[in-house]
Design brief:
Two copies of one chain form a homodimer. Chain A is an alpha/beta fold. The first copy, chain A, is built from twelve helices and twelve strands. In chain A, strand 8, helix 11 and strand 9 form a beta-alpha-beta unit. Chains A and B meet through helix 4, helix 5, strand 2 and helix 6 of A and helix 4, helix 5, strand 2 and helix 6 of B. The structure holds a DNA duplex (30 and 30 nucleotides).
DNA sequence: AATATTTCTGCAATCGATTGCAGAATAAAA
DNA sequence: TTTTATTCTGCAATCGATTGCAGAAATATT
């Protein structure tokens, strides 16, 4: 069932000219007679010619393709970032090759290698949770491919980065809790090998310090990433003789949802007896009852920023590539789950 | 900053052999001496060689790439389907090029053409809402590219299709409402140029007929796709002198959410005075109060099915391609918003 | 009319990997 | 030892588009 496709040679043959001229016409070069050019374009359309990008890329040495590696394609935040990138790259006729690492380092390495093989011009990556070794990322740079890290970045690698100011956001969130009169604020933290979670913890600590509140280590629950783990941590916290009066689920809104469900089940009134703050501004946070205070990361905007950063960098490619970090300030969205004043 | 990459010629030169042998070794052919093969692989690793897939594809005439076109990457359903496809294709070392049509026919055409240019082996598409002309899809077939439609399919095109049995699902949903004692059931319908919405409407009508309930045209609201439109439709419905006692938001859960919010605001008790059923099983339907009855489409599974359908078709490629339709039966998820009995 | 300039076209190499074919080197069989 | 079979290796063409260079054709300048 293989139909042979029309090539520039077919067009050339039909018009009794060379492929060179056809190529020039199709690329709108000036070095072809206006009439022949028109004739070529007309014939190309008639024969339903489609340029073979593969061949073109091989010759020209660039692919106009950006590779993206994310832990999960179908996670809201990442899907939005990808949508943002797609939006911005589409206009410039770039293609996107998308891979998911499933949070596994091994798969991440394979994805990156595939993208290198594909000769992509740029790789955009948010590293997986269990990523520890970074030779595959260094490899990207060694192959002359632009590397842009976002959200979950490897600090020590000097690449372009687009991140959220996690520390600042956490600081604001916890400060807000304190202003609302909460005094024993618990933290549900994520895996500390990921910088984003370290930063969120740092913001939490900073806020406490700023307001001269002592850090109680029993109020910090490790690895409470999912809804289930958030729920489990909450059960533990609320069973303490001296339970917290607020919980900052710094890992995700899913975790915060777990908190809310357990708190409600255990008879804690939200927000009067327990304040809850999540992270990410998932759609559902608006419609729980009470609605959940959270932090918006401007994910689509982040995607656009990544794409534009790449294009900008391309334009100034004559200059040395200077590691550049763009930090997007997330926004605290205050909702019912933390509003017990005013 | 262009570093020249290692090619098979570099390896060949270093070892004083030809590129042919290097190529054979890298492809694990039997026609190379075992020792030279080992030596070649070792050298390739040392030189950090990465195969140029572009060149390889050009020669071999296939790209091991599947192109996907969806209206929106960051819509839950589509993100899940893509994740499912990714999961199944990854093992077979296929790549995914993803495009979004933003529900615009014009962009859809451009995306499809790009994918043809890229010489993808297969195009997986869910057509955009305003897609009317289908020459670009016929074009795919004419170029010898496997075309698989899913969810929103163009019926008259004889291609592989993976769909949900929308009619059956709607039939079950509305039957469930009737069994719960609801008698005046309204329908929020989607754009009727998309078959999926036609089918859902057909299921609604079938259920009414089956239970000998007369169709009231005023209870059918056109084009209530989004949360806002769903809310608007609901306001209209509930202001009627003889309002419905149930609303089937056949377009989406977002629409159903709009229904719920308006109903609550207008003082209608759900489910006792008004039953609500959505479509898609979005994560949030579980956590609204009351939780929303909806229909699960098994989106990730759908993605895997699509990928496997392709691979299966590849294996039997010697036989003529027979249009094949796989219909996945969605599942009604009964929750509080429609449970007023038992 | 002779020369210089501009515009166009073709030739042939190139991008990097793959593969059919032919022949060399080695091993096995007679 | 000769013949046959097997295993390896290299040559050269191929995939389709692009592009530097050279020369032809057309136009402009003196």
């Amino acid at each position: 069932m293989k139909k042979k496709r029309t090539t520039i040679y077919d067009i050339a043959e039909k018009l009794n000219i060379t492929a060179s001229s056809v190529s020039r016409a199709l690329n709108n070069s000036n070095y072809v007679n206006e009439n022949t050019k028109k004739l070529i374009l007309k014939t190309a359309a008639e024969l339903n010619y489609k340029r073979n990008t593969i061949a073109s890329n091989l010759r020209s040495g660039q692919s106009k393709t950006i590779g993206i590696v994310v832990p999960r394609i179908n996670q809201n935040f990442f899907a939005n970032v990808i949508a943002g990138i797609e939006d911005a790259t589409y206009e410039k006729n770039y293609n996107l090759i998308i891979c998911q690492s499933n949070e596994q380092e091994e798969k991440e390495v394979k994805c990156v290698n595939t993208l290198i093989n594909q000769q992509v011009d740029c790789i955009v990556i948010s590293v997986s949770a269990d990523s520890h070794d970074h030779t595959h990322l260094k490899n990207v740079i060694e192959h002359g491919i632009q590397l842009i890290q976002f959200d979950r970045v490897v600090d020590e690698l000097e690449t372009l980065k687009v991140i959220n100011d996690n520390e600042q956001a956490s600081l604001e969130a916890v400060s807000h809790l304190i202003e609302q009169g909460y005094k024993r604020i618990a933290l549900l933290e994520g895996p500390q090998n990921l910088d984003i979670f370290k930063q969120r913890k740092a913001g939490y600590l900073k806020a406490l310090k700023k307001h001269k509140i002592a850090v109680v280590h029993d109020l910090i629950i490790e690895n409470a990433w999912t809804k289930e783990l958030g729920a489990e941590g909450t059960r533990k916290l609320l069973s303490m003789p001296n339970p917290p009066d607020a919980i900052f689920a710094s890992t995700s809104d899913f975790s915060a949802l777990g908190v809310l469900e357990v708190a409600t089940a255990m008879g804690f009134k939200v927000p009067s007896e327990l304040g809850i703050c999540g992270y990410s501004n998932e759609a559902f946070t608006e419609i729980t009852s009470p609605s959940i205070t959270t932090i918006d990361q401007f994910s689509i905007y982040m995607g656009k920023t990544i794409a534009n950063l790449y294009f900008q960098e391309m334009e100034n490619k004559e200059t040395e590539v200077i590691p550049k970090i763009i930090s997007i300030k997330p926004k605290l969205i205050i909702r019912s789950s933390t509003s017990r004043k005013g």
